[in-house]
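User: I've been going back and forth on whether these two constructs are worth ordering. Before I decide, could you fold them both?

Assistant: Sure. I'll take them in the order you sent them. The first construct and its structure tokens:
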Amino acid sequence: MNVSVLIPVSSDLRISDCVRSIDENIELVISLNRPTKELKSLVKKMAENPEKFCAKKLKVKICVISYLSIAGAYNNGIRHSSNDLILLMDSDCVFSPGCIRKLYHRLDTNKLSKGKVNFLFTNRLNQLLARAREFHTSDFINAYSPPLLFNKDIIDDIKGYYFHPRLCWMEDGEFDCRVKEAKLKISYDPTAIVEHCPLILSKDLINALWYGVGRRISFDLGLVEKPSGFIQSINNYFVKGWKAKGFLVGAYLLFWKYIQLIGYYSQGVLKIRK
């Protein structure tokens, strides 16, 4: 199977669980971006003794950039991969059995195939966050990661680059926009599942802030349109979220969106990220 599983990571030691869930003999590219000492030690052990971390035969490659950037880590990992097919995966997720093979067979005549993220939860708050994240990501077909498998030659269709090097957040959203502009079809298999660890409220809201920063950078670069404002967001997030997922999810989605807008307008004034 000519697939390279690409995992960008900077500090998440849960990558070991992700690697253990790989059930195909493939190439694994671990793309480090400003990694911690603990992570570097762990991935070094993976490269030296992959059989201790996974039952399958893995060819492990490690590549590094010195700055924090998922987009940069993606691009660097793609450069170091040996295969034509790239499967994007997150370190805080695990593959369900057969997921990789299902995505591989789903490519057929298309250049991208997408599976579904199942957000795990252990309590009602986790469940609320999971339902809200589903509304953003896994309730519709898109080119977000994970799990996303694509052929490298899509670069000829999507304006000549994979992930914009200036973007540290919203990089997969901007990627998705170019895929849609190119009218590339995405083969979708809802049974090709990856499971995401339970979400944490504080981290989810911090992510909303940084997504707003990333959205402003994308806007300033002329890559995306201006986001909906505070009033319009009531319909786009609260009303639609309420209808799709319930009142509490709709309320949280609106709050999350407002945090994102704070990040967006703060970046415009303070230039939090250069």
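The second construct, handled the same way:
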Amino acid sequence: MLTKINKSIIIPFYDCFELVMQRLAELTAMGLPDDYEVILVNDGSIESKTDLLLLAARKQFPIFRTIGYEVNHGFASANNLGASEAQGNVLCFLSSDVVIRKPFWGQLNNLDNIVLGGRYINLDAGWNAFAINGGPKVIFPYLEGWFIACAHDAFEDIGRWDPQYDPFDYEDLDFSTAARELEYQLEYMSPLFFQHQLGGTIFRKTSAEGRIRITRRNQELFTQKWIESGRWKDIK
């Protein structure tokens, strides 16, 4: 008898597949419950070694299935594709550069009105505070996107990840802001569960100058969507 899938772990990747193998090894060693599925989203990987590592992973860790794009889209689009294929009533978005230090599945119950993350930023971090109409800065608190979990229905209600921020940056601030607009609670887990290797994938594919250009562009997109439109006024 097949086990009913209740929760889905979605891991996007763009090459750097050795990091994905580390996550699969951690999930396997920790005894991932049978009612979980692992969906790997291949976001247009181009390195030949990725295919070889993927074949090796299928033999070592038969706990996942793979979907993907022919060309690279970006973090938001890859996550959305994974969510479209997910069977679980809870979605867990996990970046490949996040070390899983202990089983986190016990934290994923009762998420009906909650978006759960690995780290919560509610101070001015340099990119989430905006001076509005010449007044004092308004801080937009958010959950960092390297681990976010929520009910599947809530994900659709919030509006999914906004692909205008592809390939990366500001999609997590946008998703958190959209959740807050609908009065979902942002909560975070103990740091004992995860260790994020900052830039573990981005800087292997993007120069520092390219990262700055993307960040500035997406900051402007966020400003247009939430501040210039006036939508920020309705967020409690």
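Notes on the second construct follow. Helices lie at 17-29, 48-60, 75-85, 152-158, 171-181, 202-205, 208-228. The two ends are 47 Å apart (CA to CA).
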